[in-house]
């Protein structure tokens, strides 16, 4: 009986300390930390591919994220209508397919290329929301990036299948953005994301358990999977949420546009994935297209 209040006081004090630490970091720093956290998680996940297939690694990541998010923001299912359930389940299934196809792309492509192609999804959502002629420039620039990434010339060794998986992941990312907004209107706080991650874990479990088998029970792999879940989901989401409370959304969007470049840098430093000049040019084109569309939307 005596441990309850002390435990709650301790957790509250730790939460206050973490919030104070986050408040001491500029919001732009929080966004950049979140970006590098995601890419570090992807790098560790890619290292796991030597021991587990991508689908099993996805299951570990999503299951870890669902457990942690479920403990932080337990979804309230009472009183939900069928439309709420439809949005939540659709959100979760989209999250599952997005992660599965991205990790399949990651198994076949350098990180920088996989993230750059996937980033076409949110860029497409941003451009589709506008009707200005200058947006054609950003579409053309992004298209040039895709052409430069296609498997010919210096990119001849790049996998067409990998690019296909990354494009599907990008389309799912676009749907994720729209469903995230819908879930935010129907679920209080962060419970919509928590609900979606639980749905995603349940949906991906049959594939992940079947392909991973008994290897999923190895303690070291479970520990790395937990780390991937923290780095790829829980930590960046928390940092981004904190940053969005203290900075304009257009600045957040500009900083997030740097994600493909961060992925390429992490790939070089941690995985030894050296990109050719043509591939760097493609990544820069996609980053520039995202930056341009974000800045123009802000001015308008």
Automatic annotation (TrEMBL):
Record key words, sorted: Cell membrane, Membrane, Transmembrane, Transmembrane helix
Main location: membrane
Record-linked InterPro entries: AA-Vitamin_Transporters, EamA_dom, EmrE-like
GO cellular component: plasma membrane
A Pfam family this chain is assigned to: EamA
Domain of life: Bacteria
Residue ranges occupied by any EamA domain in the UniProt entry: 161-292
Similarity remark: Belongs to the EamA transporter family.
UniProt membrane topology term: Multi-pass membrane protein
Coiled coil: none
Matching PANTHER family: INNER MEMBRANE TRANSPORTER, S-ADENOSYLMETHIONINE_S-ADENOSYLHOMOCYSTEINE TRANSPORTER
Membrane spanning residue stretches: 56-73, 85-103, 109-129, 136-153, 159-179, 191-209, 221-239, 251-271, 277-296
Name of this chain's protein: Transporter
Cellular compartment(s): Cell membrane
